Protein 1
Amino acid sequence: MKTVSAKKKAKLRRSPGTQKRIKLGPRFLRAFEFAAEKHAGQTRKASAIPYIAHLMGVASLVLEAGGDEDLAIAALLHDVVEDCGGAPMSKEVRRRFGARVAKVVDGCTDADTYPKPPWRERKEKYLRHLAAADADTRLVSAADKLNNVRSILSDYREVGEFVWARFNGGREGTLWYYRSLRDEFLRHAPNRITRDLELAVNELELLAARNSPPAVEP
């Protein structure tokens, strides 16, 4: 029978989520209602899935990684500035949920103006921003990207190369962006989210390589 070493037991005791109980109170419920209201009518790309499903998924990942109530709230609201009002919405988030939540939400926003800048320009700017972002922002951002890439993988298995038509960056741009995100998050000490993001992006690359369009001869 295989036994668990004392060192491994100590590591398990110190793992995120096992150190202390995370309490979710009325603020979290208010944030959920706020997110559901602001994103009402929005769906995930090329689907009928309510957008709140993505926000719930990101919040779940953050809590499972040991994030506290502020970070769970930021996860629920991470797209509200970008998709539901721009800079004025950032001020409302700060007023309702506090400076720490607003800072993380702003840190997960790649554009707060309309119309948005060109796609590649926005993504390159966001990658530069992540390089200097604080740990709170990186945690929520990594959870967002992990939830997204898992969704892409699931859809890719179902519809194949048609999945790329959903994204402004197309096939090559989307793959470039998620590779860059993976590499950026791995520059810091890994956590359960960044490790899972690495695995998911690697799997997406493998699937894409197997389904590469044939080269066009000159």
Protein 2
Amino acid sequence: MNAPRAVVLVSGGLDSATALALAREQGFICHALSVDYGQRHHAELEAARRVARAQGAAEHRIMRVDLAGIGGSALTDSAIAVPEEPTTGIPVTYVPARNTLMLCLALGWAEVLGARDLFVGVNVLDSSGYPDCRPEFIAAFEALARLATKAGVEGAAWHVHAPLIRLTKAQIIREGVRLGVDYGPTVSCYQADAEGRACGRCDSCRLRRAGFATAGLTDPTRYQGPSGA
């Protein structure tokens, strides 16, 4: 019996690298998809290439969507500063409709491949409060996939896997270490430099650093300064 195929969203960060490893552990032939959406931290796309290659993805594609054209986020609009202190509510690093559009691209590619499984590394506990990282969103998108595709109308069962959604960052890191994920080449920082070195101050850097500390593991992140501060 042939192994099932899955499309895995791979951003180049810690979470998506772990999601890819988990998909492979479950026996899927993984097709990695990254999205160039106009993000200011473009180094993550090079990291995504490294992650896909290191983990033996059957294929890796980078698709383009111009979310910078609508702006509204510190990750796509250089006029909006990335916060370097904790904030309340949904932060300005939220990118409108990003996960919806990424999953739509993954859905379309999966239908062409004959795959019926999507993997995404969203997490509700350490997500900075993004609405499109919640279990309700994943369930709604899975229902959409069944209604909006030829395969779904013909009776195919779509599954959107979010294996990290209720894990802490430390638990995610421990899972990745168990699976042999090398987190050194990954890039999580919202304002990484051209070489992929992290600022050490943004929300994503704080969550990542705290995750390694709580897991009791050495943080392999490359920082722009000697201490990342």
Protein 3
Amino acid sequence: MTTQLVSAVTFGADLRPSPALGPPTQTRFLELDGGRIAYDDTGGSGPLILALPGMGDLRSEYRLLCPALLRAGYRVVTMDVRGFGETSARWNDYSAHAVGRDALAVINHLNAGAAVILGNSFAAGSALWAAHDAPERVRGAVLLGPIVRDQKPSAFSRIALNIGFAWPWRVWFWTTFWDSLFPSAKPADHLQIKRALLSNLREPGRMAALEAMINLSKADTAAIIPKTRVSTLIVMGTRDPDFPDPAAEAHRLAEQLGAESLIVDGAGHYPHTEMPDLVAPKLLSFIARVHGRSSNDL
């Protein structure tokens, strides 16, 4: 287990868009029992990266990491998880395990070899479930702000959630909370993304999906962690409000998984979006190792 702490005085990979990367990709759909999964695919013959956003968010969450991954020669696929984005809103199962099965369905559909899966928040558990169910299809897992076990909420938090998810202000409540998850820096296009998120969550069934996810126990995911053998990188912001002590949570999980960890000083729940220039170098180094590539290949 190795731990690295990075702060804003460190400068990493060039994340600026490049015309050579081509036009934006179009949404594709994979029909499954119970609904359809929306994803985009940069294409190419490079090793596969599959990125899963957290609950109540969109696959655009990974927009600031994609340029660095593309420059390094990877094929990047980003997927809207059950309930959100352009994926179907209504499902009979919103668990991390179910989303992990969706991730494997996309990997199998693409027929592009084993993938490294990036999972944020609850979807970190989905990355672990995919590796647990089909280790031959998952080369590595990157857990970003991972919520993979139950934590007892305070009485204030329970009251706030009950009030916040009442009509008619529940979309406003969630997006206001989402804003708070970027405590140090908001991306230049943050307001544009927020408008897209607001519009999406106002669609029928979206907020019901979010409420269902929030209320699900993560005990099943916690139970598979000691059995997981996939190469793993944990990325945690020191100001992630979902944890009383984010660094301690990262260290605890890293010990259980035998994982590497990156602690991003000042970042919140989305370190890869809030401070992508600090996350990208470690991310690229980790992915290169698990895909058996040398630094000369990047």
